[in-house]
Design brief:
It comes from Paramecium tetraurelia. This is Glycoside hydrolase family 13 N-terminal domain-containing protein. By secondary structure, the chain is of the alpha/beta class. The chain has 4 domains: about 80 residues, no CATH class; about 70 residues, Immunoglobulin-like; about 220 residues, TIM Barrel (Alpha-Beta Barrel); about 70 residues, Sandwich (Immunoglobulin-like), CATH 2.60.40.1180. Strand 10 and strand 11 form a beta hairpin. Helix 3 crosses helix 8 and helix 7 runs parallel beside helix 8. The radius of gyration is 26 Å and the shape is globular.
Length: about 475
């Protein structure tokens, strides 16, 4: 049951909710626009047509998705409006003053600095701080903002700027205006190459076409690392160079940050855990608003969803469907990535019966080439693992600074052909792609194999030797943990 208790006083038609049906309300999901975007008949979903054994799980999650989507549309008009929580909560500046709002259902008292908030008795607290007699805000730009929740000192969940662990009121006279447009075309034709970097270390590294911002939790920028104007300038510069800027959303870190925020055990998280409660209205509002905020305010081009396990949780699946629906609604060419695990149709569109992701990430080598799989290469990855990720995957996510392989890949255009033929010859993995052949020896022994074709040259090892048996056959030795590029 979707938790809507905080809206019963304001929205009478939510009081009756039985088996997923809103009582006495005509469905808002039957109009022509909706039917063009979604497919409600599970038997018509492309994924179910191709894999009928998935019908039951897809039908269950789609039914819940449409139930939640209908509630959102009835309350907020659209998912995009629902995801504008950052314009309603936190510190909202107007011509008349500053309004502070926070959702804290377990609070008995809430204050912002010296200003006491009032509650609607539904968990929402707010205070309006008017301008002074000289038409100036009573809180000045750069001032600290402290939320007192009962006897707890907190940083607002909706803070957009911090200095260390202290929320800051950010309202400069002049704000940076973007000069470039957001991502206009998905970086898929020649593979997505993502380099991980912290928000204060963004730079163009040759060979990559996307940068992933890591270790950022929710909306708040720490001005000890960068301020909003500097970040916008940096993103503008990266866009000018043709780079996409993605952001990692670490759901485990968000859960840890929000646990016991208002003193209760189950405000944003499930009681007794650090896991976010994705069945709650305000949890969905916060997470979806976080996505909308970064796209709208900072022109982020996409997101990687990390530390989220939806294996046995339909509420998480519904959240991810809503998130992908929102991303591709606001930004049709936006990119969404999720860590790979066994779950049906991660990278099929919602209309096809999937969750709507563009890519999934694998940390292991594979003998099956998957066009929508990215490979995550750790700092200590071997040369073989790097080459394997670049060639077998449509892209790579890495912390490394070794750009030689990426530069070579860019020069040779390895990924011009989308699909690859993968074979195994005496434990050596052979990948035929475009006009190149890649040989990987992942074993701890040197291997000598026979190939039914001639070799012109080994591109990545000058002077490498092989034996030409006849016009159609070649013998070559590949050392342990070595990878060769053959033309």
């Amino acid at each position: 049951m979707f938790q809507i208790e905080n809206y019963q006083k304001r929205i009478p038609y939510f009081i009756r909710y039985d088996h997923g049906i809103l009582q006495n309300q005509q469905s808002v999901l039957e109009n022509e626009e909706f039917l063009l975007k979604y497919q409600k008949n599970v038997d018509q979903l492309q994924t179910v047509i191709e894999e009928p054994e998935l019908k039951e799980v897809i039908q269950s999650r789609n039914e819940k998705f449409f139930q939640v989507l209908e509630q959102i549309i009835k309350v907020e008009s659209s998912i995009k409006d629902f995801a504008k929580g950052y314009q309603k909560f936190g510190f909202v500046v107007s011509d008349n003053g500053i309004t502070y709002r926070e959702w804290a259902p377990n609070a008995k008292e809430l204050k912002l600095n010296e200003y006491s908030c009032t509650t609607d008795n539904g968990g929402n607290w707010e205070v309006f701080i008017p301008k002074d007699d000289d038409d100036n805000h009573q809180i000045v730009h750069g001032s600290p903002l402290i939320t007192y929740c009962n006897d707890l000192q907190r940083v607002s969940v909706w803070s957009q700027v911090k200095k260390g662990e202290q929320a800051i009121f950010w309202n400069p006279e002049n704000k940076y205006e973007f000069q470039q447009q957001q991502l206009q075309q998905k970086q898929q034709s020649k593979g997505l190459k993502i380099n991980k970097q912290r928000i204060n270390q963004l730079e163009n590294i040759p060979g990559y076409n996307a940068i992933l911002i890591t270790e950022q939790v929710l909306m708040a920028l720490d001005i000890n690392q960068t301020n909003p104007d500097d970040l916008k300038k940096t993103i503008d510069n990266l866009h000018q160079q043709g780079l996409s800027v993605l952001m990692e959303i670490d759901h485990q870190l968000i859960g840890q940050l929000l646990k016991n925020w208002d003193g209760g055990e189950f405000q944003y998280v499930r009681e007794g855990t650090d896991q976010l409660d994705y069945s709650k209205w305000e949890v969905l509002r916060l997470l979806l608003s976080n996505i909308s905020f970064w796209i709208t305010e900072y022109q982020i081009d996409g997101f990687k969803f990390s530390n989220i396990d939806l294996t046995d949780d339909i509420d998480i699946a519904v959240y991810l469907m809503l998130a992908n629906d929102l991303i591709h609604d606001i930004l049709p060419n936006g990119i969404s990535v999720i860590n790979s695990f066994e779950y049906p149709a991660l990278c099929r569109t919602i209309k096809e019966g999937g969750l709507g992701f563009d890519f999934k990430v694998s940390q292991s080598q594979t003998k099956q080439y998957l066009p929508k799989t990215l490979y995550e290469i750790p700092l200590d990855a071997s040369h073989l693992q790097q080459l394997n990720g670049l060639v077998l995957g449509q892209g790579v996510i890495t912390n490394g600074k070794d750009n030689n392989l990426l530069l070579l890949e860019s020069q040779l255009g390895w990924l011009e052909t989308e699909f690859a033929e993968v074979n195994v010859i005496d434990f050596v993995i052979e990948v035929k792609r475009s006009k190149y052949i890649f040989l990987f020896n992942p074993t701890d022994q040197n291997r000598t194999i026979k190939l039914s074709y001639t070799i012109n040259k080994v591109i990545n090892h000058v002077g490498y030797k092989w034996t030409q048996i006849d016009d159609n056959n070649t013998e070559i030795q590949i050392q342990s943990e070595q990878g060769l590029i053959i033309e």
